[in-house]
Amino acid sequence: MFVLYLINFLLAVSSSMAMSLAPLFMTSALGFSRLTIGLLEGGYELSADCMKLFVGRRIDRLRKKKGWIVLGILLSCLSKPFLLLGMTSSFLALSFSRMLERISNGSIAAARDKFVAENSLPNERGKAYGKIMLSKTMGCFLGPLLLAFWCVLYPSVDGGHYISLILVSLL
Q1: pLDDT, tens digit (0-9, with 9 covering 90-100), for 68-91
Q2: Does the predicted model carry a pTM greater than 0.90?
Q3: Which residues have CB under 8 Å from 29's CB, separation 6+?
Q4: Which among 80, 158, 81, 76 has a CA at the least distance from the CA of 109?
Q5: Please, which residues have CB within 8 angstroms of residue 157's CB and are 6 or more apart in sequence?
Q6: Contact in structure between 77 and 105 (CB atoms under 8 Å)
Q7: Which of these, 69, 62, 63, 79, lies nearest to 110 by C-alpha position?
Q8: Using CA atoms, how far apart are residues 43 and 76, in angstroms rounded to an integer?
């Protein structure tokens, strides 16, 4: 279970660092309004929720969780280069990156929750689920904190700055 906590934490750090740059880039470099970004982000979240539903149903039928977790990790890793590409060339690559990242989250979440439920004692499921969500929440908190720290160290706001921030998030 510790490995799952660690993976959950590291993915949350990486994704929250990289993906929190996307709205900033869309407003400052592409000139998108906050309303447009809100609508886009809502669509990305919808894709994550649809993936959770799809994966949850597949897991209930096939009882295979590991493959969905691995797929989610791979999609999350693949989303970062597309984010990099999107910040240098096209909004479509940027949008594709956000969609991939949210779909990866949906794939991981359903499989992770099923894994936690099946591998914890009935009277300790709440505690186990709390630990897994704590690891994710800590990662989601630490990612932007590291991003802010990086921005203080290197205060430039040009295109190269965004790219360096994404590269740091890949580590």
Answers
A1: 888 988 998 888 887 777 777 678
A2: no
A3: 87, 159, 162
A4: 76
A5: 28
A6: no
A7: 69
A8: 17
